[in-house]
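so the lab meeting is tmrw and i was supposed to have these ready like two days ago... anyway. pasting both below. for each one the top line is the aa sequence and the line under it is the structure tokens. i havent really looked at them closely yet so no promises
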Amino acid sequence: MPHRPRSSGGHSCLTILLAGGQGSRLHELTGTDCKPAVPFGPTGRIVDFVVSNAAMVGLGPMVVATQYRPVSLTAHLMRNWASAFADGLILRDGHCVAGKQGYRGTADAVAANMAEIDRTAPEHVLILAGDHVFDMDFGRMMADHIASGAAATVAATPVPVSEARGFGILDADAQGQVTRFVEKPANPPAMFGDPRRSLASMGIYAFRWAWLRAALRAELQRPGTRFDFGHDILPRALRDRELRLHTLPDRPDGRTGYWRDVGTLDAYRKAQLDFVAATPPIPLPQMPGGGIAGLNTVMSGFAAQAAAVHGTVLMPGARIARGAHAKHAILGPGVVLPAGIVIGEDPNEDRRWFRRTDAGTVLVTVEMLKRREDAGTMTRAISGYRN
């Protein structure tokens, strides 16, 4: 029996989660896991934020498009989230669906599953990115999308102009119709009336399925397509004057709604530290079984007992010996920081053994520590031989 999509205000809707990204800017953290599966706390993963938001709305079933190193991700989703979707999770690995080449882009991940989507016969589809930290009411977005009558709606949030080069940037009129879209511009345009901020695409889209289906078929035949929503599908909707804007609402205190692209080591570390505050910026994902995808970030009480630690995040299984010192670091899974080590104070020493960003975040992995220890052992052996 085919899965049937749930309704949104009387309109059937299918949710598609794009969760196949490698996340190369996270470097060694994605050596064995895809970006959505990177830990965010002792039991949670980055993907938990978007799945939690989708589960609360109940627009299932959810199609999950995976590709790069999907094993831990699919195991985590099936173990912790499948029960939250009455119609289940439909796992669609790119190398199984699209052959050796896999999905060629975000839009191809949907195009390659067109037959599966057609079997559910949805009126609308909600496309979600599985690698951001945020809180959003997808039900409200779908209601606004359907009420507008537009073929496509893109979710956006204000970001500082200085940080906007890495995003798709939008502009819209007073009625919410998008008038301009530029993918990762060198000189990002500012929001109307706010020269300090730009409107960035959140990688979340709602489409009338009939329109998107036709657009995907056209892109499959178009020479030079990147099979990408930002580069190909949204510009097509803009040309058709069918692209609407849904802005992430401000928080109750008036601040911009919380959304973080945790695609870099600096952003990943800072996002975890945001949740150490007495009042976290958004609720942590609540797993169906009652567990909380909490954080394993170093807290002041523990730090006082174990080490001098400032702005450091411990990933699952990481520990710090008494007398160690770490500043602005990410201690990878299983890292045991030995007594006497100092990280985050000397950039040259950090870079000699570990990965340090220009902004000062230092990533430490088990393998990096092992190389450092082996080099120290060899140095001591040579010194002993000479003596």
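ok protien two:
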Amino acid sequence: MSELIDQTELQSRAERLVAAARNAGADACDAIAVTGVSLGVEVRDGKVEETERAEGDDVTLRVFVGKRSAAVSANQLDNPSDLAERAVAMAKVAPEDPFAGLADPDMLVKQLPELELLDSKQLSADELTNIALEAEAAGLSVEGISKSGGASASWRLAGVVMATSHGFQGAYLSSRFGMSMTAVAGDGTAMERDYDFDSRTFFEDLDAPADIGRRAGERAVRRLNPDKISTRTTNVIYEARAARSILGHLVGAINGASVARKTSFLMDHMGEAVLAPGLTVVDDPFKRRGAATRPFDGEGTEASVLNMVEDGVLQHWYLDGASARELGLTPNGRARRAGSGTSPGSTNVTLMRGEKSLEELMADAGDGLLVTDLIGHGVNGLTGDYSRGAAGFWFENGKIVRPVSEITIAGNLKDMFKRMVPGSDLDNRYAAAAPSILIEGMALAGN
């Protein structure tokens, strides 16, 4: 598969841009070249609805003139000098940024680690079609399923090359495979839908298409004839798929850019307990076959595995060079390319598993709501106030008794984080990985 992307040519593009920028008067600069190819198939009712193949190249040059900077992007690189001169001219009239600049040379990656990023398997449109059709057929075979919401299968290959004026050069290829199926149960106004999906770096790690479709169908049927519940305070358990959103809110709150802008509700809590005792959140840029595994960050800096939260206590912010300078800290290799510059972000972040299964969490809680679906984005990043629409299942004495919907869950993330009890069912497939989470005493708005 690697012959589809010529990294030698990508490297040459980046190096030519860096040289051209220095010749045009840039004090420092970096260039990143990204290319990719993808193929996806969508089916519905046993027929192909869409087959899409995409190929693209993009190169971005970022230049610094003193503390002024600018960036320009192009799809083709016919004349590096023109692009470089334009970028330098833009930088000279840009406002000064005291925190702008390339990474400290001492922080650069010296030797790229060997990582499992690339599966050499190629899938044809026919193979992807057969995968999607198999998933759809399995979903439709579930008793109670009335129609298909569609199924899909895809693969993607991406190449990244980076070069800087102070000596960094790095490149890597990565692959991604995915499939999904959406099933619809019931008829008329009583229809319910649900889905299942999988996405992996290596094709061999994907769940079987029949399992994806069957789970989508079973999930949809379980949601039929939902009840509404009255407003109350109760225990809430987020199943693993929904629990990733809770982890995502934590990741956003400990982003160094938000802290520097003073827009995070955790900005004054470094070194303090922000989660329940015993809880640990790990960020691992080198996770085996991880969705966000990478050998270097958006500035070419070295990273390490970090316990962002350890035993409930906040240990680190996510930092790129600019946010670290603004906060007077050291970057930790979490820079992402973002438009004309970088921004800090997570890699493979995991809330470590607890000791009890989902069933045991329900038994401990007694009565409450098992959340399987969340709606909306009602989170205030400055205050931590939380309000999300939800659907799922009401359980009593630790056993599911009926599906429920049209519920709003409310609270404050500061308090919610400290009451989290993680289960043992860690879903480790995605860039944000979490087990089921029990939070006692949540406010529910119903009828």
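from a quick look at the 2nd one: The longest strand covers residues 145-164. The two ends are 55 Å apart (CA to CA). will dig more after coffe
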